[in-house]
Write a structure and sequence with these properties.
The complex is a heterotrimer of chains A (245), B (205) and C (195).
Chain A lengths: L1 H10 L1 H33 L13 H28 L2 H33 L7 H22 L3 H32 L15 H33 L4 H7 L1
Chain B lengths: L1 E10 L2 E11 L4 E5 L6 H9 L6 E6 L2 E2 L4 H6 L1 E4 L11 H10 L6 H10 L15 H14 L4 E5 L7 H16 L3 E5 L11 E5 L4
Parallel strand pairs in B: 3-8, 3-9, 6-7, 7-8
Antiparallel strand pairs in B: 1-2, 1-4, 4-5
Helix pairs in contact in B: 3-5, 4-5
Chain C lengths: L1 H12 L4 H34 L1 H6 L5 H15 L1 H14 L7 H25 L6 H29 L4 H29 L2
Helix pairs in contact in C: 1-2, 1-5, 2-5, 2-6, 2-7, 4-6, 4-8, 5-6, 6-7, 6-8, 7-8
The chains are: A mainly alpha (245), B alpha/beta (205), C mainly alpha (195).
């Protein structure tokens, strides 16, 4: 019975809203602390990599953004699937809230990737498998957001974009595989070791902490967007009037 | 056999169906009345499974219609606002196609249905050349051919002349006599015996 | 038709030099095929959605998955297969030798089949959406990347005389995955699109 109440609470917009409101500052605070400490550790404390010198420090921002861009897409797809199977409004709202955050993360991953690439190969863009896959991921996000925007009825938009997200997430491993296969055919001298320099512990812990920090940051932003999304969707409900009063 | 329980549906911001419940039993016709925009079409489509209600359920033969969807659809014939006819095909070809995907159907059966609904005269012309009333007669032939227990009709008398409206009443009576169930959205009540009728008015505040 | 025009316009933008064109041929053929596919996909369900027959499919009590699979196959037979069969003409214009033609046709045939299957999902999702055509392209292109990569590689190997088996197997694997999963997703998409 207790698990059923928990599930019910998860599905109920006012409960989720209250939860989000309470916990946002905590997640935000921890995120800020983690990121600051990790930045200090990575930018100041970690020794320069003997091959890439100081340029490798970009990995502290690039790797978390890339990892998160994929993780957010997966979260979005899971939330969408939950919304579709169990018909939970909150799940659909969560998926909608994830999308812009994920898209920006992907843009950041591409941007930091390009900034990382310049000192490494002299050009801003290479058709490296990871960058190429990030680009395709960005198009997947655009497709999702475009579909949501193109369908008038909100319930229909929720369901249609949910199907798209699930199809997309199944495709992501296939796309990654195909892009890596393609890249391996045309092996160029600049073999990419981006984001995976051999790391000893001094270099590694800021990265892991940064990852955690970004994850907490994502949760913070998600909770904020989710609250706004819930208010917008439920604007005619009585609990919204009470909350805004 | 058909139970609609507490169905709520929103279209965008509008709370169109507010807790609609009724029972459809063999030999009875459920008439849905109400003003334009009251939700008659929405309800018919929700029962058919084309729309998903946010709350509430539709039960068919005791089981939720959603879980036994294909079986449910095999038992029902749906007639919407626009008759589903392909313009380039003739009435006969259309029926062979649309009924053919449900069950195998013989030419004799198609002819009989077209005669019953008064559509034989124009059965071989391309349907895009037919008038709205003629198309509706062809569509009614399709409903007959479906051999379905449950009929969901959305304003079946649209575009029909006085003869056509009588035809619809007769067809419904015959269906009820076969222990079928009819749910029809109408503007005006149909003159059927009271014990066969259940009226439900939608859109009341 | 569109495919032919694209293939013949390309040399005008690049160079009349046959050897350079031959290098670019896989790309030109595949981009042309992709764009033609996208144009054709818009019409996969459109007519049936408009005249109400798609709804009848959904209400028929038969498996919508199978019906949509059948529709997609027919659509491919009328659009994708002719495209693949007419590819030799375009390929010849790009300097591809005659021995390469079977490989070119095979890769485009299999690839366009996979495209139709994947595209059916987008076609279902965009039923009734604003700017459906543009949206369909946006949705389908990222999902088509693997088809493009494996297919173009197969065509490239065919042209250069190499063994086309490895990429064809990969393309075939995608097609099989498409056959098993895509019609299911397309059926779900169409039901949502009809709401």
């Amino acid at each position: 019975m207790a698990t059923w109440t928990w599930f019910h609470r998860l599905a109920s917009p006012p409960h989720v809203y209250a939860f989000a409101r309470r916990w946002t500052p905590w997640f935000g605070g921890f995120a800020a602390v983690a990121i600051v400490v990790a930045l200090y550790g990575g930018l100041v404390m970690a020794p320069p990599d003997y091959q890439q010198k100081d340029a490798f420090r970009m990995v502290y921002v690039h790797a978390p953004t890339a990892w998160l861009s994929l993780m957010i897409y997966t979260t979005m797809a899971v939330a969408a699937a939950v919304g579709l199977i169990w018909r939970m409004k909150v799940a659909h709202a969560a998926a909608a809230a994830c999308a812009p955050v994920g898209a920006w993360m992907t843009v950041a991953a591409l941007g930091t990737g390009m900034l990382y690439g310049k000192p490494m190969w002299g050009t801003y863009w290479v058709w490296d498998p990871r960058l190429t896959a990030e680009l395709v991921l960005l198009f997947l996000y655009f497709g999702y957001m475009g579909l949501r925007a193109g369908i008038e009825d909100p319930v229909k938009a929720d369901k249609a974009s949910a199907v798209l997200a699930v199809v997309g997430v199944i495709n992501v491993p296939i796309i990654k595989f195909s892009v890596e296969w393609w890249n391996s055919l045309h092996q160029t001298a600049t073999v990419m070791q981006m984001g995976k320099p051999k790391m000893d512990f001094d270099m590694l812990w800021p990265l892991l902490l940064m990852l955690l920090g970004f994850l907490l940051y994502f949760i913070t932003v998600l909770l904020i967007r989710l609250r706004a999304e819930l208010l917008r969707r439920e604007r005619n409900a009585s609990w919204v009037r009470e909350v805004l009063a | 056999m058909l139970t609609v329980q507490g169905v709520h549906l929103w279209r965008g911001d509008r709370h169109v169906l507010r807790g609609v419940s009724f029972e459809g039993t063999p030999g009875k016709c459920v008439l849905l009345t109400g003003k334009n925009g009251a939700g008659k079409t929405t309800l018919i489509r929700a029962i058919a499974g084309l729309l998903d209600p946010e709350e509430g359920q539709v039960f068919w033969r005791g089981a939720p219609a959603r879980t036994r969807r294909d079986e449910f659809h095999g038992d029902l014939a749906y007639l919407g606002h626009e008759p589903p006819l392909k313009g380039d095909l003739s009435a006969r070809e259309n029926l062979r196609y649309s009924i053919g995907i449900r069950r195998s159907v013989t030419t004799a059966e198609i002819d009989a249905a077209l005669t019953r609904t008064g559509a034989s005269a124009f059965a071989d012309r391309a349907t895009r050349m037919l008038s709205a009333g003629q198309k509706r007669r062809v569509a009614l032939a399709g409903v007959l051919l479906a051999n379905a227990v449950l009929w969901l009709l959305d304003e079946p008398t649209t575009n029909l002349d006085a003869d056509g409206q009588q035809l619809v009443r007769d067809l419904i009576s015959e269906q009820l006599a076969r222990d079928g169930i009819v749910v029809a959205a109408v503007h005006h009540s149909l003159p059927l015996p009271a014990e066969q009728l259940v009226e439900l008015t939608l859109g009341q505040p | 038709m569109f495919f032919m025009i694209v293939a013949t316009l390309f040399p005008l933008t690049l160079t009349p030099e046959m050897s350079r064109l031959r290098d670019a041929a896989p790309g030109v053929l595949w981009i042309g095929a992709l764009l033609s596919s996208l144009l054709a996909l818009e019409f996969l369900f459109r007519d049936d959605a408009v005249d109400g027959t798609l709804e009848q499919f959904a209400l028929s009590g038969q498996s919508l998955t199978w019906m949509l699979f059948a529709k997609t196959c027919t659509h491919w037979l009328l659009t994708g297969l002719p495209l693949a069969l007419s590819a030799p003409i375009a390929a010849a214009a790009l300097g591809v030798s005659v021995d390469a033609m079977p490989g070119v046709v095979a890769s485009l045939a299999l690839g366009s089949f996979a495209m139709s299957l994947i595209g059916a999902i987008g076609a279902g999702l965009t039923l009734g959406a604003r700017r459906g055509g543009v949206l369909l392209s946006l949705l389908t292109l990222p999902l088509a990347v693997p088809i493009l990569i494996f297919g173009a590689r197969a065509t490239q190997l065919a042209i250069s005389g190499g063994d086309i088996a490895p990429p064809m197997y990969l393309l075939g694997a995608i097609a099989v995955l498409g056959v098993t999963l895509a019609p299911l997703a397309a059926a779900a998409a169409v039901r949502i699109g009809l709401e």
